[in-house]
Design goal:
single chain; mainly alpha; two-stranded antiparallel sheet; 47% helix
């Protein structure tokens, strides 16, 4: 993506996401961590010690905007159609199309930001098993000028927590949501918990911690 498009993203307050290209967390570690979650209070509990886990954590570790209107409360059936009208499409493209047009398309400034956010949300911040973006966040991308008015950290946290609940209660094989944040949020507490399995510690250092250096 060229610098002019990156500047548009930075000007809207989401330039931090450009720094996470290539960052990921291994599946095995995310699953182990999800198994330490207290499903009643939402904390991560390891060896009787508690790691706070909340929208504030998303804000602190990922640098995502916090506070403002709740995205989930403003989702309705018309959001998808209004979003499609803004990007001049008749049906929702697959995620790859958003990525291809972002890199190579001749887009307006507003559409550069919309396309970038769809790619970031669908592949990194709020991924799911579908090849299509979720309509749940499209409403927040209709009016680009108001994008900073939404509580993105809470939305990302609630997406991840919902995925953890589904993983635990329905015994799913994978966890949706931002696994990278889920793993990195543990790093400052790592040496305080001697009960972390050695295999998980090695995974964390080689695939998450080192990536951040």
């Amino acid at each position: 993506m060229d610098e002019s498009k990156k500047k548009i993203i930075r000007d809207h307050g989401f330039g931090i996401l450009l720094e996470y290209d290539g960052c990921y967390a291994p599946k095995a570690f995310a699953q182990w961590l999800a198994n330490q979650a207290d499903l009643n209070c939402g904390d991560i509990v390891i060896g009787g010690k508690i790691i706070p886990f909340s929208a504030q954590s998303v804000h602190l570790f990922l640098g995502i905007l916090i506070g403002g209107e709740e995205i989930n409360q403003h989702y309705d059936d018309s959001a998808k159609s209004r979003f499609l009208k803004e990007i001049k499409e008749t049906s929702l493209p697959v995620m790859k199309t958003f990525g291809d047009k972002l890199l190579h398309g001749n887009l307006s400034d507003d559409d550069v930001f919309r396309y970038f956010m769809v790619v970031a949300l669908s592949s990194f911040l709020c991924p799911n098993s579908s090849t299509l973006p979720s309509p749940k966040y499209l409403g927040a991308l209709i009016d680009v000028k108001s994008v900073k008015d939404w509580d993105w950290s809470k939305f990302i946290f609630e997406w991840l927590w919902s995925s953890i609940l589904t993983y635990r209660k329905k015994k799913r094989q994978t966890i949706g949501g931002c696994r990278y944040f889920f793993a990195v949020s543990l790093v400052p507490f790592l040496f305080s918990f001697p009960l972390i399995p050695l295999s998980c510690t090695c995974i964390l250092f080689t695939d998450v911690f080192v990536t951040c250096l």
